[in-house]
Amino acid sequence: MQVKLIASITETDCTDWNSIAGIGYPFLCHEFLSALEESGCVGGNTGWLPQYMVVMEGEVLLAIMPMYRKGHSAGEYVFDHAWANFYHQNGVAYYPKWLTAIPFTPCQGPRLACRADVDSSVIKSLVFAFISEQAEIEGISSWHCLFPPPDQLDGFGGLAVNVREGVQFQWFNRGYRDFDDFLDTMNASKRKMVKRERRKIDGQGISFNVLAGDQVSDQQWQVFYHFYALTYLKKGSKPYLNLAFFTACAQTMGEQMLMVLAIKEGRYVGAALSWVGNDTLYGRYWGCYEEYNFLHFEACYYQGLDYCLAKGLQRFDSGAQGEHKIARGFEPVSTYSFHWLKDRRFAAPIADFLTREQASIRQYKNHAAQYLPFKTITNKG
Prior knowledge:
- The protein is α+β, with helices and mostly antiparallel strands.
- It has 2 domains: 203 residues, Gcn5-related N-acetyltransferase (GNAT) (Aminopeptidase), CATH 3.40.630.30; 140 residues, Gcn5-related N-acetyltransferase (GNAT) (Aminopeptidase), CATH 3.40.630.
- Helices cover 36% and strands 24% of the residues.
- The chain has 10 helices and 15 strands.
- It has an 11-stranded mixed beta sheet with strand order 2-5-6-8-15-9-14-13-12-11-10, with helices on both faces.
- Helix 9 links the parallel strand 13 and strand 14.
- Helix 2 packs antiparallel against helix 8.
């Protein structure tokens, strides 16, 4: 077996990659990662230099792990800017670092994936040894793995990693027949609130066109992208992704994309885009020209919940942040990241910080759960 880094996902065969990655988690698919490269959203001068890690046996692909050589910490959703400053204040370079993550995507999912007939413990030992040895050769300060699934918490022990905990808000399908059945689990005040919000949308004359990505026209993609870019521009920042990325995904994996277009008086006034996995809807992007009462909630949450219930999806991962989701039935869940710091002088104080941070994160999560709208609190954890 040989571990190596490759500079482009095009160095692997799409079928071979997807046979290991699967298609249930769309962001690890060859098509998604390839679209990021081809559109120029990663690579070049973006600060996201692809260095995918693969394990080979001869010409046979055994394991894959997305990895990027990072020159900054933007677009990660797990913030380590203070750590970079800590290094800088002590005259040590924090960048470049290695990042195992899906660019611009704070969604839990597999990070190191192996063929089913391969001993994963052997693969992990090889990968961890490679990381620690090659980091010395390439002048890499650290390796970070963001948003792995909870069942991999014990899977990265081959390196002296620190675990960092975060909180997101997700919805879980507990066998609801339809949206009203879901609402029946809420207390009276929150149930009335949701119904009132949905009525307000109807009262403003807003309707919705819900399409799979491969059904979206070029003109509709341009409209969506304008909405998406406006979300960033309103905050004084540049969008991470470009139109070419979205249209490339629509061409190669459009059946795994869900577009919600809001229409008022014959024109588009907002849009939300999600990705569809085996049992999960991943809410990702949103934008609008002007604010309408509750349009964001309807396009980003309620339309998505309608879709989950119609298709039998078990979870709605609505992305990072958003305490307003709690009152609408999205439960606080723990997310994780792993951090290996080559220089042990920095590892100890950062580990101490993470221990203290974890206590406050868990307190926050428990506190948030108290505001769930259900008649009986059923927090998934």
